[in-house]
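Researcher: Here's the sequence for the chain we discussed earlier.
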Amino acid sequence: MEIGYFPGCSLHSTAQEFDLSIKAVCDILDVHLQEIPDWNCCGASAAHETSEELGLALPYLDLVKAEAARLKTVLSPCPACFSNLSKTHEKVVSDKALGDRLQDVTGGKVYQGTISNRHVLDFFMDGVGLDAIKEKVKKPLEGLKVACYYGCLTRLPGVSMDSVEHPMMMDQIIEALGAEALDWTHKTECCGASLSITRTDVALRLGKEILEAAQRAGAECIAVVCPLCQSNLDTRQAGINSKYHTSFSLPVVYMTQLMGVAFEAPKNHLGFNKHIVSPDVLNRF
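Model: Thanks. This is the structure I predict for it:
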């Protein structure tokens, strides 16, 4: 299987472990990723605050470049990137005047509306399938208790791949790996990553509540599919412990890293060395 790939800015910088683990897992699943040539930032998450038109023009250019590369489907691991590309696609397809305007502001670039956009959750769930995932499991994650954390970005406008209030795609994938996906209270709560710099106090409070809920449910790790969620919950635990006199040391790992462990991909290909809170709990697998 061949699919287009839009890593976005995060996966080439602060979320390199997401990029590494996706590539390792896709290689095992015989999925060939073709990166969009000369892709540009999609504008997440600040472009639309500067200009709504800019917030549409940036992902529009990526869609144009994907078509120029003769891609049919594009995988965008970052939920914000996925939302931006999906939303822009839908708006251009349904609004000819907007399409004409974006063509004009991008110097005559024409998007024909042929790209199908996928996130890692719906791609692995529907594009690859649970049966194919189960077939690749060599070391089941038996006994591992996982809190699947979807956060708020997987429910942005333009994202309609799972239940908004009670998503289950990640839970099903985690269980296909042999682990236990826990029933817990904060799977869709915002972690405050967008306030991490401007209102650190709010980000710390929200992070504390999520970590408490995961710990209360008996989680040994939190699984995520969003670079902002991973970075915020991983890097902020020391600050949370200092402010609230707690002792959190809960690994926050990408779903694709857990897939890689279950598939017996070399762990040095999964980016575990880039975590702040060490995922030592996975050493038993």
